[in-house]
Amino acid sequence: MRDGDLVFVADSHLEGGDEAEVRRFLRFLEARRRDTAVLYLVGDIFKIWLGSEKFTMDHQRPVVDALASLRRDGVRLVMVEGNREFFLGRFEGSAFDRVESRVASEVFAGLRFHVSHGDLLNTRDWPYRIFRRVTKSRPVWWLFNLLPGGAGVRFAERLEARLKTANLRHKRSFPAEQALAYGRRFVEEGYDVGVIGHLHVERVMEVGPESGPRRRLYVLPGWIETHRFLRFAPDGSVSYETFADAPEAGVRATERRPGPTT
Predict the structure, then answer these.
(1) Which one has a higher pLDDT value, 56 or 210?
(2) Going by C-beta distance under 8 Å and a sequence separation of 6 or more, which residues neighbour residue 160?
(3) Phi and psi (nearest 5°) for 181?
(4) How far apart are CA 184 and CA 137, in angstroms?
(5) What are phi and psi of 90, to 5 degrees?
(6) Average pLDDT of the residues in 81-87
(7) What pLDDT does 193 receive?
(8) What is the pTM of this model?
(9) What integer pLDDT is reported at residue 165 of this predicted model?
(10) CA distance 111 to 114
């Protein structure tokens, strides 16, 4: 593995109508060529991303090409699907070294990482859990692929919009209880660090069994709102950082600001 850091980014929600954001994300990817050994995309990179060539949209192609270029340059790339990605396995071996539908494991700087998008964190959100199980099933995907490209994308966007409206009550507060329970589970399974996205809140939580070792769960800020990401260096240092190209950042790319710990 090449020298460099382990970097996590999530929830950029890129869409065709916002070319400036797509270009900014491309510049973020290009910057990773200089300092990153492993890059994790922890879900919801596009507003909708369907893993079939006929559903690929124009604004997605340069991002996929940039990821493939990074991979050829030696950066190891892992995609953890979120609620806006569907069956991206065809990108393994080109844009990504691995695509995981739910959970990824990583070993870096002597630590074991448990990485998931976080959309299944709230066990009380049954409407979404049912929606996810149905839409990510292979029979539904087979039927979906019978649609023409444009019709399939429009249908997926309508489903996403309907779900977003229906589940607002599950998104009004940070699910601290569920996050702690999730932390206890991954610590009991032998992991040292947990990383999730989806919640669009930057946070660091001390987790683990009351009488056992305490570990940390890092919640990724939403790139779409903050242009921030999470970095682990080989020496063990950790930082949330703002991409300096973001117009509201006004800081250097090396600025490091810890998130709140709960």
Answers:
(1) 56
(2) 47, 48, 83, 84
(3) -65, -40
(4) 29
(5) -65, -15
(6) 93
(7) 98
(8) 0.90
(9) 62
(10) 10
* Total Cβ atoms within 10 A of residue 2: 10
Kindly tell me the burial class for residue 97, based on how many C-beta atoms sit within 10 Å of its own C-beta (0-12, 13-18, 19 or more).
middle
Within 8 A by CB and 6+ apart from 127, the residues are 163, 166, 167
Which residues, listed in sequence order, are joined to residue 231 by a DSSP beta bridge? 7, 239
Q: Which are the contacts of 207, defined by CB distance < 8 A and separation ≥ 6? A: 179, 180, 182, 183, 184, 186, 187, 194, 214, 215, 216, 217
> Does domain 5-123+173-242 match CATH 1.10.760.10?
no
Note the pLDDT tens digit of each residue in 8-66. 999 999 998 899 999 999 999 999 999 999 999 999 999 999 999 899 999 999 999 99
- Residue closest to 80 by CA, chosen among 240, 241, 203, 197: 197
The amino acid occupying position 69 is: S
